[in-house]
Structures are given as structure tokens and as C-alpha cells.
Amino acid sequence: MAAIFDTLQQALGAQALDATVAHSTLALRLAPTELLGTAKRLKSEFAFDLFLDVTAVDWPGQQPRFEVVYHFYSTTHHVRVRVKTRVPEEDPGVDSLVALYGSAHFMERECHDMYGIVFRGNPDLRPILLYEGFVGHPLRKDYPKEREQPLVRYRT
Amino acid sequence: MIIPSPVRPAFEASDRDDAVIVNIGPSHPATHGTLQVIAALDGEKVKRVDVHCGYLHRGFEKECEAHTWHNLIPYVDRLNYCSALINDFAYCEAVERLMDIEITPRCRYLRTLLSEYSRIADHLTCIAASLMEMGAMTAFLYLVMVRDYIYEHLAGLTGARVTYTYGRIGGLARDLPEGWLERLDEILEQYEVFVARIHGLMDRNRIFIDRTRNVGVIATADAINWGFTGPILRSTGAPRDLRKDTPYLAYGELDFEVPVGINGDNYDRYYVRMREMDESVHMIRQLMEMLPGGPINVDDRRCTFPEKHLVYSEIESLINHFKLIIDGPRVPAGEVYAAHEAPNGELGFYLVSTGDGTPYKMHVRSPSFVHMGGLARLLEGYQLADIIPTFGSVNMIGGECDR
């Protein structure tokens, strides 16, 4: 496990803002512009062939506000890499990974639903867990938990 | 009252081709899950599908940010409600990693045993339901009967049939009741009797083979590209299993095989699940021998509840109990991704803590949701009627998919 992390830290450390290992996962912090290039290298050079997950964390009050978090798994090395990048509220956009991983289609749609992150290059960002016409992004911290937007009106 | 459509289809019927657009679901009697498939058909052949999930979305991740770490356990139960214990244990392990807790040996073996027991129940449900949808009512009843033995047996341990709330951060809710392991032995024997009958009924059944062989085929590289894990990935011939690849709990000490398929079709997915249940039984028998004595909960005031009689008799325990209930366990700041091999594939919990008694962020990497993203690849190019067995073989669980 340690060997592949050392290799990765050496190879990708220059592009990353930092690279730390915690809870048997290597976490890379990147500038948004480095994301696509790093993901490409992770896939082609280091065999991180399974795109596990993308989600975001909302840090209101911090600049940039959103942290987009990716998890990759290598079916060769059996380890995970977490890639994080920050995007501002005014322009919450990152490059889409759909060209590299098919599974990115749905997962980016979900992240778009929940946080309003725009994945540039994903051709289909229609709502997936929410519905057409839903206003706002429910997992943002400023979306109140109690707010209801029923599609079918309650019987009164 | 006009209700607006919750979805916008990816395509419409056009004048140029003679495709017919058929809407299946979200609530269709032949699918065991709330899923909408909009299909463009050429005759009976599926040309293109647009899969919509989300009809069971109930704001799980949002709700989790408003409760203490302990209070989430009943919620995670309701992700994959066919194998709720595995959700419990995966979630608890994620929190334990953040808190740097090592669970007791008895708890470790018990969690492993119960995970495998749940896997059997989950696979039984999946196989039973998908066989029934193809008309095999007898097979359904045989399998669901065994599953009910398991449910009742687990109810004896946990007090609930389906959603057990049995995991605890740092341990388990309670130890095994008397006679539980003896009954487990009996049920495993019953399992073998009935699964042998299923093999006899299905494996070389002409109708079953015609419906499943070379239907919903996917190759290993495609499956990985679309994020498939679990039995679907293994049915393509790739022996990828987190229990072997990144051993957790007691899996590193057990002797078991990772069954794989050849073709990656519906038949292989059926057979991989059948073989996996046999491996689970093999593991449970080993674990029954290995099960050590000792406590099931760690001795750690940060997360373990004090004994009830102490809460009523000494002030420290009373305060400890009060703080755990009102403030929740203090989980050190940090982030963790912990994954278990759930019956459907990789079930991952990504947690972010800011040092509070409630999670700052909780995200579930649910295998069902990822599988729905690639479902179109399994449906396109086959017959309309194949949607039902293929969807059944993917075993989408709404609770986990839509969260």
C-alpha cells in the first residue's frame, strides 16, 4: 500500500497543493485546473480504473466555498485515492470526468442536484434524485431542512 | 389538478424513425423497485433507454447532518433494507476509524458472521424476486421461506425483522441470546436443502436459460468503466471482492473463494449469487468455531453507553449517558471513506467531522445508484421483455439508490 502512495506522492506531488495519507487513503488537494489532467494520469499511468464517487462539501463563509471530493479505486493496487478541489460560489464549475469514466455520468448529475456544482462537459445534468422544477440545492448548508417543495399539493 | 411530470425524457419520438416510446414504471407491477425506464423500441427491441431513479429520495444525507452520530444508525438501516446489518457495520466502522477505536475480538467476529448471514438473506431476496418475475413461483416460495427463517432468527437477536439497528459505535447492541448458534446451525442445514432444490429447478431449466443466457451481457472493462462492483462485476469474470482485496473485520483469517462468472450475463449473475451464498455458509461455519468470548463493546467513554444500573446509581455514569444522548459522541475532526463489500457491491461511507457530536457531512457511495447509471448498457439491444429479468439481476434497492 505504502509503495504506490509513495510513487503517487512523487509523481503528482508537484501539481498538488498537498498530498497526505490518512485512514489508508491518499488525499490530494488540487487546483480545479489540475483536476482533469490528474484524473487522466491516475487512470492511465497508475491504474486507478474504478471511479467510485463524487460529492461536495459546503463550507459557507470560507473562500472558495465548495469542496468537490472524488474517490478513485485501483483494482490492481487495491487502494483508494481521494482528490479534492475547491470552487467558488459564483462559478461552481469543474471539468467533467465523463470522458474518462462512464460512471461519472450519474454521479455528477447527483452532485449537480445536491450542490449545484456544474460539471463542464457532462452532456446530461438533468435532475436525477430530485425532479424537474425543484428550486435550489438541498445539501447546501443554507437550504433549510424543513423546506418542502411538494410536486403534488397536500390535501387540506 | 394537473401534476407536472417529474422527469424530462432524454429523447422524444421523432418523425424520422419509427421508434415507439414506452414508459415503464415508476410503479410497475413487474419490477421490484421504484424505477422509471423510458424506452425507445424498434418492434420489441430496445433501442435506447433513459433510466430515472429518485422516486424514493427522502433526504437521507441532509437529515444525517441534524442528528448525533449514534442516532444515524436507524437511518443507515434503511439504505439497503435487505441487508441492514451490513450498512450498520460499514457506518460504525467509518466512525470508529475517525475515533481511532479498535473493536473487541468478539465484536469483530460477530460482525463478520452477521454480515455473511445478511448477505445470504439479501441474495435470497434478489434471486427469489427475479425468479418470480420470470414466473418461477415455487422457487420464490422456497427461497423466501429460508429468508424468513433468517429474518425471524435475527429478530430473536435484535428485536426487529428487517431494520435491526443492531450496530453501535464501538460494538453491538447486545450479545447473542442463548441457543442462537444452535438455531443458526439448523437454518444453515435448511438452507442447503432448499438451495439444492433451486439448483435442481433452475440451473438447467430450458425456459430459465432462454430468458437469461446471453441477455444483459457486459464485459469486465465496460463494467469497471461504468462503476459496477459486487456480483455484477464478478459475473464478468473479474474476481474483485473487497473482502479479499482489502480485508476488513475478520475476513483476512477466513478460508473462502470468490466465485466469478464467464459471460457477464443474467445467468452468470444468478449463479454468482448462488455460489456466494454457499461461500457465506462456509464462512459462517468457520466463524462459529472461531467466535471468542469476552465483551462486545469497547471500554471507551467517548462512545460506549454505560451499563443501565450504573446510570441509575452513580453520577459519573449518569452524566456520561446524558452527554452521549444530548451532545452525541465527540468524533475527532477529519474525514474518512470506509467501504464494505455489501451484497450489491461497494458500499462506502464518506464522513466529514468537525469535532462535533453530529456529522458535518455524510455521503453514501451506494452500489445501486451507480449501477442505475450503467443500467442502460445492460438493457439496450435486447428485447422489451428482457428488461424485467435484467433489472432483477442488478438488484436495485430503492432505499439505497435514492437515499
Describe the structure.
The complex is a heterodimer of chains A (156) and B (403). Chain A has 156 residues and is α/β, with parallel strands linked by helices. Chain A has one domain (2-120): NADH:ubiquinone oxidoreductase Nqo5 subunit (Beta Polymerase, domain 2). Chain A contains three helices and seven strands. The longest helix of chain A is centred in the last third of the chain and has 12 residues, at 104-115. The model of chain A has no long low-confidence stretch (mean pLDDT 87). Chain B is mainly alpha-helical and 403 residues long. Chain B has one domain (65-402): Cytochrome-c3 Hydrogenase, chain B (Orthogonal Bundle). Helices cover 47% and strands 12% of the residues of chain B. Chain B has helices spanning 60-64, 73-77, 84-99, 105-133, 137-158, 180-202, 206-212, 220-225, 231-235, 242-245, 266-290, 308-311, 315-326, 367-379, 387-394, 398-402, and strands at residues 20-24, 36-42, 45-52, 167-168, 171-172, 334-342, 345-353, 361-365. In chain B, helix 3 runs antiparallel to helix 4 (105-133), helix 6 (180-202) packs antiparallel against helix 11 and helix 14 (367-379) runs antiparallel to helix 15. At the A-B interface, strand 3, strand 4 and helix 3 of A face helix 1, helix 8, strand 6, strand 7 and strand 8 of B.
